[in-house]
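Z., the sequence and structure:
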Amino acid sequence: MREWHETITLRDGSEVRLDGANMVGGRITATYPGDGQAVIVANAGDYVYPYDVRFDRPADRLYVATGGLAGGLVTRYFLFEYDLHERRLVAKRRVNQRDLPVMCPDTRVK
């Protein structure tokens, strides 16, 4: 099982704690230690779990690729783009797995 537990620093020097796992109920959450707010960055639903997480430092954007059997029946892949500075979901798109980059070899947020 892949898990993510990282604290990253945004452009303005503030920190964000990222946590998540590739498992039932799997999602990626961001917690802002400055005010204690926690937000769900990516939650694709039943049986569709995060499997890769990447951070675009210059843009303060987090990208989360998810995949699995939606409703336990059909394989689905989604890509989430989240603006960590503005604390908002920018995009959630259903994608083909072949269009996603090769998975990072470890679970550190890149």
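The mean pLDDT is 91. Strands lie at 3-9, 15-21, 28-32, 37-42, 48-56, 61-70, 74-83, 88-95.

Let me know what you think.
H.
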